[in-house]
Fold:
Amino acid sequence: MLTIKVNTFQKLTTQELYDVLQLRSEVFVVEQDCVYQDIDGKDNKALHVIGYKNDKVVAYARIFKPGDYFEDASIGRVVVKGTERQHQYGYDIMKASIEAIKNHFNVSTIKISAQTYLKRFYNNLEFFEVGEEYLEDDIPHITMIKH
Structure:
């Protein structure tokens, strides 16, 4: 079972920020063998949805209000520690992110840029493809919308 916390960038502790950036780097840079600028200057505008298990960060997403990333509200940097994926924490962190968007921004339409291989995962959360597949940091992605 995950314990979920939602915080602004300013309210993250130094340790929380370090743990989140370490998890993002572990998965998006090392595991996916993708050299890209994860620290993109957008974290300060995001709300950070952090999933803890036994006081360790094992899942994470960041959410944006409409206009801060896309025209619609959005969820990005969705990540679960490799050793914890069998517990389906991806669903927990996404459901918490969807709920946080409703509670904090009072909107229901959400746009994401999803890695194509995760299309079915996002379909299960009622996100549906819009447009054609494209490359982002040399990884196939697709735009998806949830209404």
